[in-house]
Amino acid sequence: SPNPPLSCSPSPMRGALLAAAGGAMGGAGGPLARTIRAKLTAALQPTHLEVRDDSPRHGGPPGAETHFGVLVVSGRFEGLPLLQRHRLVHEALQAELAGPLHALQVIARTPQQWQSDPRAPPAPPCLGGSKRERRRG
């Protein structure tokens, strides 16, 4: 059975849900989760940040940190189209995306957008595969 969220946030993000202030409520996840949180906090000064580790849903070995979802609410996104918001997140996590991080779902909202609708869509279904797998044809 899935673990309950570690946050009392109204957001329905599933899995290991780690609100920015929730580090004391059961830990901040593994090393990569902590790095993601620290880098996004430094780069975007979010008013709300959730980091969700979806790795267990993707069949990797226990403790593998390869698939994440992030919900970032930041004033830095004000006036930016969605593509530019995602680029800011990807720039902050450039080293991780080039290495251990295989997949990243990004939800990027302004504080006003989050205030009017404090919910996140559910995680997308796992489509299988890995960037380290060799495709056969």
Provide a descriptive summary of the structure in words:
With 137 residues, the protein is an alpha+beta fold. The protein has a domain at 75-109. It has four helices and four strands, in the order βαββααβα. It has a four-stranded mixed β-sheet. This is BOLA1 protein. Belongs to the BolA/IbaG family.
Give the secondary structure arrangement, pairings included.
Blueprint: E1 16-19, H1 31-44, E2 48-53, E3 67-73, H2 82-92, H3 94-98, E4 103-109, H4 111-116
Parallel strand pairs: 3-4
Antiparallel strand pairs: 1-2, 2-3
- If helices are DSSP runs of H or I spanning 4 or more residues, what is the number of helices? 4
Q: Strand-residue fraction?
A: 15-25%
Largest sheet: 4 strands, mixed
Order of helices and strands: EHEEHHEH
Distance linking N and C termini? 36 Å
Low-confidence stretches: 1-27, 130-137
- Strand neighbour order, sheet with most strands: 1-2-3-4
DSSP E strands, number: 4
Binned, the helix content reads 25-40%
From the alpha-carbon coordinates, what is the Rg to the nearest angstrom?
15 Å
Structural class: alpha+beta
Query: What is the average of the pLDDT values?
Result: 76
Assembly type: single chain
Q: How does the overall form come out from the CA principal axes?
A: globular
Protein name: BOLA1 protein
Pfam families: BolA
Region (Disordered): 109-137
Family: Belongs to the BolA/IbaG family.
Task: Provide keyphrases for this structure.
BolA, BOLA1 protein, 4 helices, disordered C terminus, BolA/IbaG_stress_morph_reg, BolA-like_sf
